[in-house]
Fold this protein.
Amino acid sequence: MAKPFYHGGQAIIEGVMMRGRENIAIAVRRPDGKLAVETQPLASLYKSRLRQTPFVRGIIILIEALVLGTQALFRSAQIASAEEEEEISSGLLWGTIALGIGFAIALFFLAPLLLTRYFVDPYITSALVSNLIEGSLRIVIFVVYLKLIGLIPDIKTTFAYHGAEHKVVNAYEAGIPLDVENVKNYSTAHTRCGTSFLLAVLVIAIIVFALLGRPPMWISILSRIILIPVIAALGYEVVRLGTTHVNNILVRAFLAPGLALQGLTTREPDDKQMEAAISALQKVIEVDDSKQNQPPESEET
């Protein structure tokens, strides 16, 4: 029996990206109001056995989200602004990804460390308390950041598409026909959301860094950088375990903070935004199914 596949995606500029077994699809609202729907096959790395290997898959999925997400954002910006299609240079793509990673590390990992070391540690002796304060500060910065960017009008629109993506996936997983009226009834929160994953990463980081104690500053800074993939891998496994036991009352209690935090990264979508999410999911399912149903190519002997 084939393993169940969990569809998911992300909000992009004026639209939604959905990821399938073999392909991704984006549905973007053009300036004339019509939807542009495009598909792209997934690279072999994103379909390999590594993506199913515990503790490795979290790193692969993080890379996938960064690369595919950035590509989809660039392409959606072109469609939404009616720009001519131009191939995204690898330099621009990887430069944008590197800039985003650097910003995230500086804001959510290095800033809390420096603030704690210089303004808190002179008054405490416990390494454990120091790490708890640093971790708490990291979560506070993350929540405040989400709250502030949610005030930007364009980000509000993107968060509405994020809500549409969740509603559609929730409806699909419930076996409900995908139309706007049906999808409206579903939640804008989802247990596999990246927001919940990021919160899990921040919580696990407290535990991991607490085990290191309070080493010299250079070691602390280095650990906040090189251990991120390890923490991300652990975070993915925790979220995955939670989503497979979602009916357990203890698991639901564990997932509750992440679901609540999605209130900052989603908005109630309008009908057109839900239509975009439905179109993206239907398209990726259609393309995946057509690929699976194709007869194998004959081999010449």
User: Anything to note?
Assistant: The chain has one domain: 8-288. The first strand starts at residue 8 and ends at 12. Confidence is low (pLDDT under 50) at residues 295-301. DSSP finds ten helices and four strands in the chain.
